[in-house]
Amino acid sequence: MIYTFKLSGENLNLSKFEVETLFKTKCTRRGKIATCNLTQAPKKLKEIADRSALIKKIYKNGVKVWEFKQGRYKLREPMARPAFHPTGMKPKMARMLVNLTGAKKEILDPFCGIGATLIEAGVLGLKVSGSDYDPRMLDRTKTNLKYYKIKPKKIFKADATKLSEHLKKNSVEAITCDPPYGQSSTTSDKNLRNLFRTFMIEAHKVLKKKGRLVIIIPSKLKIPGLIPKVHGGLTRQIVVLEK
Ligand SMILES: C[S@@+](CC[C@H](N)C(=O)[O-])C[C@H]1O[C@@H](n2cnc3c(N)ncnc32)[C@H](O)[C@@H]1O
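^ thats the input. predicted complex w/ S-adenosylmethionine below
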């Protein structure tokens, strides 16, 4: 059955990729409209759409069958969470990152901060693990997860550039993170490029085959062979890598 999706978001290719990942299909896109052939029953289709971050409306034969509910993230906005930090990510962005990983069972955020991605993943019913090298951030994550009644699998102190000392190789289904980018959040004592490079090599070790790393990267960073060259004036980009 052919469905059309009205997309939102700054990068519509990413929005299309969210649809493709959630519905396990390929779409074509013209502007904000993506079209795809779906086999899911209507009830299942709505359930999947409810998980999305970037779909605005869905139509079947020109008739609207689903619409984004305003205020969906209100209870989890940064100021609504009990533990706050200025680097805390907004829930819609966190939801998008989680969705782009395509995780079905569990997810890890090795720069978890106050736990924004873990909250969204937990709300979706995924098992969540988080680490950070700052114990104060880990306390914030624990407070927030408890508040939203999410029981994490594991919250632990770790330098993300040494992730494989804490986790078995080929053991993690999906990773998403927003590492520091050298402005308001700390960068530890390594320089930014080394931090990203070393972390990405570690992430590759612990990820299962076909597992995805969805990571926010400062556009100024150039790591040939690891991070594709970015065009345009964006300050940060979202990169999806699959093992
Ligand atoms: C931009 S913040 C993460 C924001 C997070 N997505 C949130 O919503 O709170 C970056 C986090 O990375 C942590 N961090 C910095 N360097 C690290 C390292 N080498 N290993 C692990 N965590 C690190 C910081 O303590 C901080 O919590």
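Residues 85, 87-89, 111, 113-114, 116-117, 132-134, 137, 159-161, 178-180, 185-186, 188, 195 surround S-adenosylmethionine (CB under 6 Å).
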